[in-house]
Amino acid sequence: MAEPAVNVIQRLRVDAVRCDGVGICAHLAVELVRVDSWGYPIVSRQPLSARSLRQARAAVAACPRRALFLATD
Ligand code: SF4
After folding, report:
1. Could you tell me how many helices (H) and strands (E) the chain has, helices first?
2. pTM for this one?
3. Which of 17, 25, 35, 51 has the highest CB neighbour count under 10 A?
4. How close are the terminal C-alpha atoms of the chain, in Å?
């Protein structure tokens, strides 16, 4: 018998210490990341939908500083 599905909420997060503000993430996750006037990302705190999770994963994979990550509630 299959186990019941567990609702897992994921959110995109940024480690501000690691981030160098290049902004690749904002281009790859346009619905989740915008940049401030210095080019540093401002990340949506909304739970990720299936669609936005794809964008988030692409941005995490492309981040040259490994500053982006997915957090699970
Ligand atoms: S891609 Fe990574 S290093 Fe570049 S702005 Fe986004 S979080 Fe920062």
Report:
1. 2, 4
2. 0.88
3. 25
4. 26
Question: How many angstroms separate the alpha carbon of residue 12 from the centre of ligand 1?
Answer: 12
**pLDDT tens digits, the chain, 73 residues: what are they?**
666 656 789 999 999 999 999 889 999 999 999 999 999 999 999 999 999 999 999 999 999 999 999 999 8
- Please identify which residue in the block is written with the tokens 């480690």: 15
Q: Which atom of ligand 1 is nearest to the CA of 39?
A: 5
What are the residue boundaries of the structural domains of the chain, listed by start?
10-72
What's the CATH class of domain 10-72? alpha beta
